[in-house]
Design brief:
mainly alpha; 11 helices; globular
Length: 391
């Protein structure tokens, strides 16, 4: 079955997300009616042990990190920079714990959401015989896994050579990057699936417009197809609502952490250049900037692409209303147009803010503003330092 193909295609992403505690372990089970259903695998019980081990590990890491932050002043930075250095890792660890805890609490709902994703692909393939282009989905899935691994290797090597990091610091880096990179890419994969469905529905409508040119007026030749599209649109709307509900807290936490970290690493980059610390530390800081910035850009751009695809679909529906013959078909097209108007595909961070290009503009402006504030704070602190007289 094609739904099985989609599951097989996304298996690497699902396995990676399950291994990191972002979603429960799953498997496909055949029901009595010979249908396939995604259920929670028995291996999900291991996640309780995983969470307990993670809590113990994080407690072991937090205390040395607290000692390091409170007893070390990196490059003579002021207290505000030390505060950033203290908040960022603690926010990361809290984020990891939140993701794993919500996965345990919402396991059945998250599996049901992924099952809906598979069923929508099956419905589109069964009703409209589309080329589902699973190779492209597979490339997207592999990218979500390979890119973070490459980043792990580069960051660890650069930190060891530029800052002479030890095993403890290296372990901290790996844990931080797992949360920073893997979850936004998994979230972005789900958003890309929604964009893919909207483009498929638009393609189907365009095909019906071309076919209608050879159909006499008054014949409802595609009424059943339009009804099937309305049903698919409702299912996609449920998936979007499910993504916002199941992963809204996690993505909001990730974006808030990004808002805290970007000003710090932006000023850190400026300080590296000003004090001429060398090429490797500068490259290392640039990569950290990319780790905080690029996943957020990736998610926001994908969410914006869904909005644009929805606008294009609305335009094609209005065109189909004018062109496609048949009174009943036009009624169904008008109903589909109302669905698009009333039930838009919008992604939000648990209702706190919408995820789109406007959010990126807000992040960019606030980052610039906070970097300027940090510079003023450091200049003021330097000016107030009194140099003792030498007798």
């Amino acid at each position: 079955m094609e739904s099985r193909n989609l599951y097989q295609t996304l298996k690497p992403t699902f396995y990676t997300a399950s291994l990191l505690g972002m979603i429960p372990w799953m498997r496909i089970k055949k029901t009595e009616s010979n249908c396939e259903k995604l259920i929670i695998c028995e291996a999900s019980r291991i996640q309780w042990i995983y969470v307990l081990l993670e809590i113990v590990l994080l407690l072991c890491l937090l205390y040395p990190k607290w000692l390091y932050v409170t007893t070390t002043e990196m490059f003579n930075l002021t207290n505000i920079s030390s505060l950033f250095e203290f908040i960022i890792p603690y926010s990361l660890y809290f984020g990891l714990g939140t993701i794993c805890t919500l996965t345990l609490i919402r396991a059945e709902h998250q599996v049901a959401l992924i099952d809906k994703i598979i069923k929508i692909d099956q419905k589109l393939d069964r009703n409209f015989k589309l080329d589902m282009n699973y190779k492209k989905v597979q490339r997207m899935s592999v990218l979500a896994i390979c890119l973070p691994v490459i980043v792990y290797i580069i960051i660890v090597i650069l930190d060891i050579y530029s800052f002479k990091a030890n095993i403890y610091t290296t372990l901290l880096i790996v844990i931080e990057i797992i949360y920073l990179v893997e979850f936004p890419f998994y979230y972005g994969c789900l958003v890309k699936m929604v964009c893919r469905w909207v483009k498929f529905m638009t393609l189907i409508l365009q095909r019906k417009i071309r076919e209608s040119q050879e159909i006499p007026q008054g014949i409802d030749f595609c009424q059943n197809d339009i009804k099937a599209l309305r049903d698919v649109y409702n299912n996609v709307s449920d998936v979007v609502a499910g993504i916002n509900k199941e992963y809204g807290i996690q993505i909001a936490q990730r974006f808030i952490l990004n808002h805290i970290s970007l000003p710090y690493y932006s000023y850190f980059f400026y300080l590296m250049i000003k004090e001429e610390r060398g090429v490797l530390p500068i490259i290392d800081t640039v990569i950290w900037l990319g780790i905080f910035a690029l996943p957020v850009v990736y998610v926001a751009v994908n969410c914006e692409s869904v909005n644009r695809a929805s606008l294009k679909m609305a335009y094609v529906v209005h065109k189909a209303i004018r062109v496609v013959p048949g009174t009943r078909t036009k009624i169904d097209l008008n109903m589909l147009s109302l669905q698009i108007t009333d039930d838009k595909f919008e992604f939000s961070a648990f209702g706190l803010f919408m995820i789109n290009n406007s959010f990126l503009t807000f992040i960019k402006g606030m980052t610039t503003y906070m970097v300027i504030l940090i510079q003023f704070d450091i200049q003021e602190s330097t000016r107030n330092v009194t140099v003792p007289e030498v007798s």
